[in-house]
Amino acid sequence: MNNTNSSWLDRFFKLSQYNTNVKTEIIAGLTTFVTMAYIIVVQPDLMKAAGMDQGAVMVTVLIASGLFSIIMGLYAKRPFAVAPGMGGNAFFAYSIVAAGLATWQQGLGMIFISGVLFLLLTFLGLRETISHIIPKNIKHAIGAAVGLFIIGTGFSNAKLIVQNKTGTLTLGSLHSPTVLLSVIGLVIIIGLMARKLKAAVFIGILITSIIGIPMGITKLPHSFGDLFSLPPNPSSIMFQADIPGALKLAFFPLLFTFFTGEFFSTMGTVLGVGAKANLLDKEGNLPDIKKPFIVDGVATVGGALMGQTTITTYIESASGVEAGGRTGLTAVTTGIVFLLALFITPIILLIPSAATAPALIVIGLSMLATLKNINMDEWEESLPALLTVIAAGLTFSLANGIVFGILSYVVIKVFLGKFRDIHIGLWILCVPLVYYLWLK
């Protein structure tokens, strides 16, 4: 890339201000993509249970993730990639559609309405206000909660932790090729990071994938032609959202669950990944947080029209941050690769989860460092923060962690008679949070 283009990118994304460069941002974007590429396979498989065409779903996953990640990078200028959120998609497919509560068209209508509400609250400044009134220690804990969530995902994908016959968790067997490859990948990535290699995570994933070939885990195609393919026709699911049908009063609890869960998951991811990138101010707030929220809302609305469940900021963006990504150029790179993957999906799918799982484990561990910012000497402040981390990790839901953290903070302050420590906004916020738990 010539100096003119580099200087233009430097000025637009403020690369020098964040002590980064074009090469680092591109590698970071590729790293983010590799760690979240599983959604290309997982989302169509989940939506199949809802009666939607898998090929069409895969195409719109790539289009929506690519388009809105690019918009996030260009408008919000943050290293946050977006894609259909995990958790909400399973709730859509199994708890709503497969359970017979609504059609998938009505479900998409609910998601569209949620996106409109996201945008409305953002433009009114309420999402930004809520992020500001959350106690500072809980904000610090969110970064660690994201880390614990990522660690759990990594261990699960690597089969390093599995459920035994009694329902409890236990270590996976090293006799399993998948577990063995994951351990090898973990050693490789830790070794590369110890040598302070910026692209350690990305290089580690590639090396682990190559090692997986003779182990029979990384599946090579039968012929060169199998590496490239034209995308399927997505018309069967695009613009099928039944918005009027989603306005039934009986659907309100489902709509509220969609909205609340994704609202706090997005907020937690933005603050958690922002903390990892050292983008937060002294109060634990992200400057211009309104912009990522706007993109998130627009993406949810646009995604619903494309036939996708809630499009949200991805926790795996932390992998790009770990690789040195600090600006929107990281998100733009991730988005471009998603769009290119429309034609090279077979190549992308060669990378096994056993190669990306170690990366998630290492990244998650590094994010636990935010716990050092919590004042452990004051139990009334540290307890809600730690509960945020534990609840998020054990329930595999960032939203649950934040809800438990906020409610426990208010309860403790009430019992201590320290009503002045509770912001008026927290009292109001507790009402929908209690209702959210009641619906669970």
From TrEMBL:
Matching entries from InterPro entries are given as: Azg-like, Azg-like_bact_archaea, NCS2
* Alphabetical list of Pfam families matching this protein: Xan_ur_permease
Keyword Cell cycle in annotation: no
- Segments spanning the bilayer are 21-43, 55-75, 82-102, 108-126, 138-162, 174-192, 199-217, 329-351, 386-410, 422-439
Signal sequence, start to end: none
Membrane protein topology class:
Multi-pass membrane protein
Q: Which compartments is it annotated to reside in?
A: Cell membrane
Question: Is Transport a UniProt keyword of this protein?
Answer: yes
**Keyword annotations:** Cell membrane, Membrane, Transmembrane, Transmembrane helix, Transport
Major localization class? membrane
Q: Which family does it belong to?
A: Belongs to the nucleobase:cation symporter-2 (NCS2) (TC 2.A.40) family. Azg-like subfamily.
Protein name, as recorded: NCS2 family permease
Record organism: Paenibacillus dokdonensis
Lineage here is: Bacteria, Bacillati, Bacillota, Bacilli, Bacillales
